[in-house]
Amino acid sequence: MKDAINILKKDPILNKILHLPVSVPYYDGDVNTYLYSSIISQQLSTKSADAIYNRFLNHFNGNSPNPENLLSTDFETLRNIGLSLSKAKYLHNVALFFQDNPAAHHDWHHKTDEQIITELTSIKGVGVWTVQMVLMFCLARKDVFPIGDLGVSQSIIDLYNLSGDPKQVKNSILKIAEGWKPFRSIASLYLWSWRNHK
Fold first, then answer.
1. Could you count the other beta carbons within 10 Å of the beta carbon of residue 106?
2. Structural domain boundaries of the chain?
3. Span of 1-5, 72-76, 121-125 with lowest mean pLDDT
4. How far apart are CA 57 and CA 66, in angstroms?
5. Per CATH, the architecture of 31-137 is what?
6. pTM of the complete model
7. The CATH number fitting domain 2-25+145-197, selected from 3.40.50.620, 1.10.1670.40, 1.10.530.10, 1.10.3720.10
8. CB 12 within 8 A of CB 180
């Protein structure tokens, strides 16, 4: 973290928010489990997502299921837990991917961010933002920049007083973030924290 701060504080605007508390996540590399949790929580409040995820785990005796156990659970059962039909299907899609690629979890650390994004977004129901969160919060990748995240992009727009047409603003955001390499994930944690403490 010290190395990251030394790089990030070179940006005088970002430096003003580096005193904020950030929650450095626990990285365990279990992509399968992380994707289940991420899909369940999509478009829900934290409270609702936690409640449904806990019911999901309780159904499997308190543990995240392996692909075979999830695939043997029908859609109706998953819907009774509180999932929509589309989310139940997406969970099955994730489970099918890991069933068909049992060695995948051994290979993540040998792949680039781009390779992992390409591989996991091939699963229907898993988008680029979700995989970027996997990279940051599950695989400990320190230089991910989730420009599609509203909290990150809006924080930059506000802090740097950006304006203009969307394409210009996006280019400006990307240019600013270039200066944070190779710790753009850490910069994003501070941008989220600033948003929450405004």
1. 9
2. 2-25+145-197, 31-137
3. 1-5
4. 11
5. Orthogonal Bundle (1.10)
6. 0.88
7. 1.10.1670.40
8. no
Nearest to 117 by CA among 86, 155, 148, 92: 148
The counts of H helices and E strands in the chain are: 13, 0
DSSP 8-class letter at 167 = H
Active-site residue list: 149
User: Measured in whole angstroms, how far is the alpha carbon of residue 79 from the centre of its chain?
Assistant: 24
SS (H, E, C) 33-100: HHHHHHHHHCCCCHHHHHHHHHHHHHHCCCCCCCHHHHHCCCHHHHHHHCCCHHHHHHHHHHHHHHHH
Q: Which helix (H) or strand (E) holds 41?
A: helix 31-41
Please write the tens of the pLDDT for every residue from 13-60: 999 999 999 987 777 888 999 999 999 988 888 889 999 999 999 999
Q: For tokens 């409040």, what's the residue?
A: 45
